[in-house]
Amino acid sequence: MSPYPEQSSYLFGELPLLLLQYQLSPSEETATQILHAIHKNDTQPIRELMWGIAGSMLAAYFMYQWTQESRWQEVFQLQAGLLLREWQPVEEAGYLWTVDLYGTHQQWLGPVHGFASNLTPLIVGQSLLSEEVFQDIATKAMATVVQTAVMEEDKANWPPFMMLTIRVKLPT
Prior knowledge:
Blueprint: H1 14-24, H2 28-39, H3 53-67, H4 70-85, E1 88-90, E2 94-96, E3 99-101, E4 104-106, H5 115-124, H6 131-148, E5 150-152, E6 155-157
Antiparallel strand pairs: 1-2, 3-4, 5-6
Helix pairs in contact: 1-2, 1-3, 2-3, 3-4, 3-5
InterPro entries: 6hp_glycosidase-like_sf (IPR012341)
C-alpha cells in the first residue's frame, strides 16, 4: 500500500502501468485514466519525482510525444506552473523546493526527491514551455548547481539534502 494513496506516483502504482498499457494498446479509455491519474497531483503537496508532480509531468510529456494532443501539453504546463511557484530562493543555496515527504519538510538535491528530480521534467519537457520560462529555469538551476557544490581540490560533489540554519530570534 502506498504511503500516499491520493498521489499518482510515476515510480509506483497505477501511472506507470497505465502508460505501459497505452503504449501496448492505445485507447481513449486508457488515455482518460492517465489524464485522471496525472491530475491527482494538482492538489497534493509532494513536489518530487517518486511520489509527486515531477513524475506526473513526465507522464504528460510522454503522452504528448506519443499523441501530439494539446491536452497533454496543457496539463504539463499547469503542473510546471504549480512546481515553479514553489521553487524558492534559499540563502547561499540558490533555488530549492521544500519537499513534504513522510511527514518531514526538507530541501533535497537528489535525483528522486527534490531539486534534481524536479528539474528532470522541466528539462525533458523544455519544448512544451515558453523560451522565457525555460531561460528562467536554466538560470536558477545553474545558480543552484554552483552554490550547492561541495568542492575538494578540482572535484565537485553535491550533498543529498541541504542542512540549512534556521535563525530564531529569542525574546529579550
